[in-house]
Amino acid sequence: MYDENVTGLYLDEFNEFFDKKRQSFDVPLDLSGITNQLELKVIDALRENPYGETVTYKQLAENIGKPKAIRAVASAVAKNPFLIVVPCHRVVKANGEIGEYRGGTDTKKALLEFEKTPLEKQPLIKKIPLPKLSQLGRPGL
């Protein structure tokens, strides 16, 4: 059942993320279903990976102190139940390919591009129509 009190916080943070006002999420995550310690370490490491930057599966394995467990780390990344919130889309292959993504490779590519694209600067004041030169100096402007 939908409950605004529960989902409102999540929606607010997603809106802020896609409005480029937020680079990471603070919403509470229910990790009780994850009992594998390696998977928990991978989720923690994914949350530390900076916005707009990628990491390889090998680097991620090294970051959690398991440099030889690249396949196990890749499997843990694939099991991440918190897409976008725990940014597994920032993990790429060592050869430069973006790799797989449970949300689809097009989505992964779009998220990576989204994070690399700077926020367009918005003018503080909307464009104001200026008077024509012929109107300058006339009273009533």
UniProtKB/TrEMBL annotation:
Keyword DNA repair in annotation: yes
GO biological process, one term: methylation
EC number: 2.1.1.63
PROSITE patterns: MGMT (PS00374)
Domain named Methylated-DNA-[protein]-cysteine S-methyltransferase DNA binding: residues: 39-116
Entries under InterPro entries matching the protein: MethylDNA_cys_MeTrfase_AS, MethylDNA_cys_MeTrfase_DNA-bd, MethylDNA_cys_MeTrfase_DNAb, WH-like_DNA-bd_sf
Name recorded for this polypeptide: methylated-DNA--[protein]-cysteine S-methyltransferase
CDD domains (alphabetical): ATase
Annotated catalysed reactions: a 6-O-methyl-2'-deoxyguanosine in DNA + L-cysteinyl-[protein] = S-methyl-L-cysteinyl-[protein] + a 2'-deoxyguanosine in DNA; a 4-O-methyl-thymidine in DNA + L-cysteinyl-[protein] = a thymidine in DNA + S-methyl-L-cysteinyl-[protein]
Keyword DNA repair appears in the UniProt entry: yes
Keywords: DNA damage, DNA repair, Methyltransferase, Transferase
TM annotation in the entry: none
Pfam families: DNA_binding_1
Family note: Belongs to the MGMT family.
GO molecular function: methylated-DNA-[protein]-cysteine S-methyltransferase activity
